[in-house]
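# step 3/5: fold
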Amino acid sequence: MNCVSSYASELMKSHLSSSLPFLRLFVFFANKMIYEVASKATSLHIIDFGILHGIQWPTLIRDLSQRHGGPPKLRITGIELPQPGFRPSQTVVDTGCRLARYCKRFNVPFEYNAITAKNWEALKMDGFKLARGEVVAVNCNDRFKDLLDLTTSGEDSPRDDVLNLIRELNPHIFVHTTISVCHNSPFFLNRFQSALFYYSGIFDMFDAIFPRHDCLRLHSEQAIMGPVIKNIVACEGKERFERP
């Protein structure tokens, strides 16, 4: 991501999210399940592991505003990794401000709790500020890839620690989306073959959706896909951050 600004990178991701059907399906499925669980709730607390810019939640906010009997109070705890620069928490804080404005527009009572943490496995229950009687929904949209597991380290598994934390939270629903590929193998050949087949399919899909010389497509391939493929194939252990 060093070759483009964070804003440009997120602009490209938003472009991909609005263009690729399976990414929209992730959001549609998660929001539908959460909406159904909270259909009669007076207070809904969403804990989002990897909220970043929160682009998943405006559609749910709009749906909640139209709920028969009125919307519940919406609380969102947004968890994110520190961002590069002098303000590592600014992105997740700005996300809360945008969501607050959106909720005000649709008359949905809103409260936001921003958590910036490099090690999600070190988070404690107290930081989530759970309230009695609220419906708790935990959401993670393909972000467990940021967590090491036992196949890449001989130490305790951060991924298991986070899952144990979620079990301790005892949510009414846990929605976890992930990509079914084998990029986490400790063996180079397995990772290489997995990346080859998976990203060949992705680039074939790009050919069917985007013009060959589309500017955002070119930047997406170079600034998003390129570093990811390099990381999967060339890096080992903790240096490899792509671990679906």
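# step 4/5: annotate
The beta strands are 43-49, 73-80, 110-116, 135-141, 173-177.
# step 5/5: archive (pending)
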